Input
Amino acid sequence: MQIGQMKILMGSAHRELARSICEFIGVEPCHVTLKRFPDQEVFVKIDENVRGKDVFIVQPTCPPANDNLMELLIMIDAARRASAQRITAVLPFFGYARQDRKDQPRVPITAKLVANLLTVAGANRVLTMDLHAPQIQGFFDIPVDHLYASSVFFDYLRKYKEEDLVIISPDVGGIKMVAAYADALGTEFGFVAKRRWDAASVEAISMVGDVRGKSVLLVDDLTESGGTLEAAARIVRENGATRVRAAVSHAVLNEKGYERLKTGFIDELLTTNSNPIDCRDLPITVLSIAPLLGEAMLRINNHQSVTSLFRIKGV
Output
């Protein structure tokens, strides 16, 4: 099937990132009217002809997650009813990804529900990055292109290659990812075992790996309150680490997270602009994923391989 001209629609969640993607690709964003009725219902009107076009809608479902998700669904429906040839939902940050299984009685699998909503609304494809649980790709009955922020982090991290660096996962579930980082950067790796008391409180109970006299890089996909990172940073410092940094794909920081960063438990938080970041004069370094997403979108439009370009060594 011959795919038509690319059209990029911006939701209101992260216009800065969407504009950066458009600049990288070399196209103007499609003009869309987005507004709220007095009762806060979302109104969408696509102000350009998208009939037969290859439409990409850029909208991370970051806080306020429900508003941004609903806006994305309505934009997809508008594009479908305007006869777009193909609609790709571009979610740099996929909200509800942590609700991917029934770990308690009588709870939903909300990540699957969101996948169903996107598909029923009319999305033909999803482009996302660093899902909290990679198996969420299987919740979709449409193609999913899953990118990794590590391809953006590696160039930045290689400047620390001369340091005695150790890659540490702040929880057992991230061992595969830190092994890939360690392989790419030529370092040792380890992990921290934790106990979670509630959504914002975490206790590190033990660690595996030698960090004495070394610089530590904590690698995780997501932080909000910073509890997991703080617990891991404390235990690696207790075990002799001289410096602690963290590379986190999605820093969806709330007030508790900012408060914890102010205590200086890590020396630098390295993250991406998958959602809007307010650095607040804190040691936060934000790397742009606009070239990563832009290149993937170009390859989707041109029927080229995305996986061959973004697969992480070792994963």
